[in-house]
């Protein structure tokens, strides 16, 4: 966007702030009541505005969930985007820890994003674009871990990143659901990361 | 159970058959409407019996879901329990394929079992016992794959089996949700199995 176009900056800021207020409210409802609870009416009540204010901005429930998914993916992006000055292996491990931390700290945001059938699964949605941005970080982490080469046994680094992601997802999803056959989930996660590092390096 | 105890076998068989009829009905409701749809009333309607017939047998919704989870885990057990005459590596691969096939063919049964917060998460429940039986199959597969040794980098074979399971779960859960960043999910699954085989052998 060019700086000269659009409404004066003061007014735009107020509009952006309302957007944030409504999104904060929607996220609170999501965290407290889960996906089913996120309705235009519930979010309006939470933010103490008229339902029309939410409709005008997000349309319907799908619009709300899409915006929430974008925010969650943006936070997840920050959680895995470790400083490039860190060496590849510790950077990969820190990013994996960041991924786990996000998933366990915000299980309902994580489920919205990766629970299936949500906004991320819709090709071309804004959420799917943000999802891909997170995946790009993972690709770079895997590539750097493998010394810039394609990891052994994979056609390309994207395929390897996809496998890494599925494994991380499985671990945090089971841990967050309280399902495990051996005790000590943090240990399981560390062992998984060890295995991935050994395989990809 | 001893054969001499209990009611005459003819009557017991009828009772067992009613149990199966109700469970079939509950499973149909689950497959069609998901977890939220499985109520005593819905299952009674599906089976064309009075609700009291379902209450008497399963108590409440939790009882129904527990019985459904046990049945699903029993089917999953059959899906991963490959004939011991098959060599360790192809046996491991076949079991992993069986796991994926079950999850994709019956996404709602799979979600009931491993979706979190369900009957399997309750320590001491019948479902948790069946869940552990499936895990025992996985432990044996991993142990045989590793030539009877503890796979490198793990404290014991159970820990390695847990890591394998989390990875398989992540892959099928994302695939069943239609979420992936690279196309060709069956390929991703195969690459994951390749990576696991390389790491554990």
Observed structural traits:
homodimer, 201 residues, mainly alpha, Arc Repressor Mutant, subunit A, Tetracycline Repressor, domain 2, 9 helices, elongated, transcription (chains A, B), transcription cis-regulatory region binding (chains A, B), DNA-binding (chains A, B), Homeodomain-like_sf (chains A, B)
Structure description:
Chain A has helices at 9-33, 40-47, 51-58, 61-80, 88-105, 107-114, 126-145, 157-176, 185-200. Chain A is built from 9 helices and no strands.
Largest interface: A-B, 43 and 43 residues
Please, what is the oligomeric state?
A: homodimer
CATH topology term of the largest domain in chain A: Tetracycline Repressor, domain 2
Shape-level CATH architecture of the largest domain in chain A: Orthogonal Bundle
How many separate domains make up the residues of chain A? 2
Q: Indicate the CATH class of the largest domain in chain A.
A: Mainly Alpha
Number of beta strands of chain A: 0
Shape of chain A: elongated
Largest sheet of chain A: none
Average pLDDT figure of chain A = 90
Topology of chain A as a string of helices (H) and strands (E): HHHHHHHHH
Helix percentage range of chain A: over 70%
Structural class of chain A: mainly alpha
What radius of gyration of chain A results from the CA coordinates?
Answer: 19 Å
The CATH homologous superfamily of the largest domain in chain A corresponds to Tetracycline Repressor, domain 2
The low-confidence runs of chain A, each spanning 5 or more residues with pLDDT under 50, are 1-5
Alpha plus pi helix count of chain A: 9
Q: Termini distance of chain A?
A: 41 Å
Portion in strands of chain A = under 5%
């Amino acid at each position: 966007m060019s700086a000269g176009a659009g409404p004066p900056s003061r007014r735009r800021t107020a509009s952006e702030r309302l957007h944030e207020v409504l999104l904060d409210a929607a996220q609170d409802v999501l965290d407290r009541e889960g996906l089913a609870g996120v309705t235009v009416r519930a979010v309006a009540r939470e933010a103490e505005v008229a339902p029309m204010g939410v409709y005008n901005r997000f349309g319907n429930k799908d619009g709300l969930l899409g915006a929430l998914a974008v925010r969650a993916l943006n936070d997840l992006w920050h959680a895995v985007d470790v400083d490039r000055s860190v060496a590849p292996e510790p950077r990969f491990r820190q990013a994996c820890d960041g991924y786990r931390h996000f998933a366990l700290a915000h299980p309902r945001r994580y489920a919205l994003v990766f629970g299936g059938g949500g906004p991320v699964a819709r090709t071309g949605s804004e959420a799917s674009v943000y999802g891909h941005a997170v995946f790009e970080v993972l690709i770079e982490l895997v590539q750097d871990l493998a010394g810039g080469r394609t990891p052994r046994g994979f056609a390309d680094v994207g395929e390897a990143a996809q496998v890494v992601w599925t494994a991380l997802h499985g671990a945090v999803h089971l841990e967050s659901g309280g399902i495990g056959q051996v005790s000590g989930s943090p240990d399981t996660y560390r062992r998984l990361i060890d295995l991935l590092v050994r395989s990809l390096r």
